[in-house]
Design a protein that fits this description.
Blueprint: H1 2-36, H2 43-66, H3 72-80, H4 82-91, H5 97-114, H6 123-135, H7 143-162, H8 166-173, H9 183-188, H10 196-213, H11 217-226, H12 229-242, H13 260-264, H14 267-285, H15 288-311, H16 316-332, H17 336-348, E1 350-351, E2 354-355, H18 356-362, H19 369-383, H20 387-398, H21 406-412, H22 418-427, E3 430-431, H23 438-451, H24 463-479, H25 484-493, H26 513-516, H27 522-526, H28 528-553, H29 561-567, E4 571-572
Parallel strand pairs: 3-4
Antiparallel strand pairs: 1-2
Helix pairs in contact: 1-2, 2-5, 4-6, 5-7, 7-10, 10-14, 12-14, 12-15, 14-15, 15-17, 16-19, 22-28
Length: 575
């Protein structure tokens, strides 16, 4: 009884608190509306409005932080459109616009960080927030507004990642600006290369949108077609690269390999590396369409016009620095697609009609610091284990065998052995003539040999000799040895027989031999022994093709499988 009374009293007390807070909220809002109706606003009015507004937002924050569902205070905010009304009124006070925007951003930042449920699903919350963010574009020169705007944008991106349905509100609410207006993403683009905490938060928010674009093709298409994200990211690398030190200052004069500790001490180089790492992450997690466009801009907007000429400069110190930077970039990049673009630049780019790779190779001979840093670059390239790099640097010079004596070249000229093995396996595929009575005779001969006493292991037979005999037969099979009598029969009949292939070049689940041989008598094909042997031949045929395919997998030189099947003459098994 006492416990029930205590719970009842507690519930009544909670209801009383909510009623009191709601009454206080109404009073604050009433005071704000009275100031809104004044024809002239001074600084005292602005201070009074901001004080009442902050108290109202504090009441809302306390409620959303303690409840996981909408409460009466939130419903009052939504019903009275408090946030939207406050934003519209702030536009009528241009002389106090920056101050009002700042306090509104702080209130949204406080709300989104404390809420236990998604406030942005309420249109009366999300709409004034987007309108506020859109109005901040004209105030980006103010560091204080920029700082809190980026924090709010980051919070919104986190909410969108958790609830992708919010994207519909973003595009629908900003429909008056056209379908190409995605204000949250557009506001983040100018900060993509910003240093400090603000730049890092902006890049983190952009990565969240990039991750979302990988699952939403509409967002990816919008970013590529209606924003300048990819050009700004690529050209920003060019601008940051131009600010890098033109001369390296390392503690070790004998080594010019930049480590993370060394480049992190240079603010300009650290900022460039952050942007390069961000580009790497974007290509890795974004939609392939975004990654493809970004790679094109990086190659044609940064590598060829900026990095290439810097490597071909005349000043020795600048060339050494540019080569060391390129080495650092290759050791930093982990995304294969971006690394491929850098390797394409090294292997294929021509600066002033001069191959970049040839220039780098020639510098190895320099007995200077440039030769040392060039060797470090090639050490990094070789450690990438890239076939194209290995071919251009090593194999291209070894394949002609100019380093081998002329008398020995013929012994190493034919290095492709797997292809010949494949041809040999394919040559063992049997073909049959219209006279297929030989199948019965072959089957009888096999049975007769299997039943012969000589096939039974005898105790008098030495195991080593028997194993040796087996090895000889296996070697004969793989080497394709044919007995003289068989060779004679084959040569005498090969021109008078029309072959019928039982296997086509695609998979075949059932073979009706009678359809291929309409002239054969019915009782020949109805014999189970004949049909079983034919099916065994088909299975053996497939086995040989599979074996040939396996050998081709390990071949150094790739073949056209269809050409192999068409060109190789099959061996006829005829009597």
């Amino acid at each position: 009884m006492t416990l029930h009374w205590t719970r009842h009293r507690s519930a009544e007390s909670s209801d009383d608190e909510i009623s009191v807070e709601l009454a206080v909220l109404r009073q604050h809002w009433k005071q704000i509306l009275q100031i809104f109706q004044k024809p002239l606003i001074d600084q005292d009015d602005i201070s009074c409005v901001l004080s009442h507004f902050q108290h109202a937002v504090t009441l809302l924050t306390d409620e959303v932080a303690s409840q996981d569902r909408p409460g009466p205070i939130l419903l009052y905010f939504v019903g009275e459109a408090i946030l939207d009304t406050f934003f519209v009124w702030s536009l009528s006070c241009p002389e106090y616009a920056s101050e009002l925007k700042y306090h509104q951003l702080r209130c949204f930042e406080f709300l989104l960080s404390r809420s236990q449920h998604e406030l942005l699903f309420h249109k009366q919350i999300f709409k004034p927030l987007l309108n506020l963010l859109r109005s901040c574009e004209s105030s980006l020169s103010l560091d204080l507004i920029e700082k809190h705007m980026i924090v709010v944008l980051n919070q919104v991106c986190v909410s969108i990642t958790k609830s992708p349905e919010l994207l519909e509100f973003c595009f629908d609410i900003s429909a008056e600006h056209g379908p190409s207006r995605f204000v949250i993403f557009s506001l983040l683009i100018p900060f993509v290369h910003r240093d400090g905490l603000a730049g890092q938060q902006a890049r983190d928010a952009l990565l969240l949108i990039m991750q979302l674009s990988n699952r939403n093709e509409h967002i990816a298409r919008h970013i590529v077609e209606n924003t300048n994200f990819c050009p700004i990211l690529a050209t920003g690398l060019s601008a940051l690269y131009s600010d890098l030190p033109h001369r390296l200052s390392t503690n070790n004069d004998e080594c010019f390999i930049l480590t993370k500790k060394e480049w992190s001490e240079s603010p300009a180089l650290a900022q460039f590396m952050n942007s390069l790492q961000f580009s790497n992450d974007v290509i890795q997690i974004a939609h392939p369409t975004i990654g493809h466009h970004l790679l094109q801009y990086i190659y044609h907007g940064f590598l060829v016009p900026v990095l290439g000429p810097s490597i071909h400069q005349n000043t020795m110190d600048e060339v050494i620095a540019a080569t060391a930077y390129l080495d650092l970039f290759l050791r930093t990049i982990h995304e294969p697609a971006l690394l491929k673009v850098f390797l394409k630049f090294i292997l294929c780019a021509r600066i002033d009609e001069i191959s970049l790779l040839d220039t780098l190779i020639q510098r190895i001979n320099y007995n200077t610091k440039l030769g040392l840093v060039s060797l470090g670059l090639f050490y990094t390239l070789i450690n990438l284990n890239c076939e194209d790099i290995m071919y251009r640097l090593i194999f291209m010079y070894l394949i002609p065998c100019r380093h081998v004596m002329c008398s020995q070249r013929r012994h190493i000229s034919d290095v492709e052995i797997y292809g010949k093995n494949a041809e040999r396996f394919l040559s063992l595929i049997p073909s049959f003539s219209n006279k297929n009575i030989f199948i019965l005779k072959e089957f009888d001969e096999m049975q007769r040999r299997a039943r012969s006493p000589s096939r039974t292991r005898s105790k008098s037979v030495e195991p080593d000799k028997e194993r040796s005999s087996k090895r000889s037969r296996i070697l004969d099979f793989f080497r394709g040895r044919v007995r003289p009598s068989d060779q004679t029969d084959k040569n005498s009949n090969v021109h008078n027989q029309s072959h019928i292939s039982f296997i086509d070049k695609t998979s075949m689940k059932f073979i009706n031999i009678r359809d291929h041989n309409p002239t054969n008598s019915i009782h020949e094909w109805d014999d189970p022994k004949t049909r079983n042997i034919a099916y065994c031949a088909v299975i053996f045929n497939e086995f040989l093709k599979e074996l040939a395919a396996i050998t081709l997998e390990h071949s150094v030189q790739q073949f056209d499988d269809d050409q192999i099947f068409d060109d190789i003459l099959p061996i006829s098994l005829m009597l």
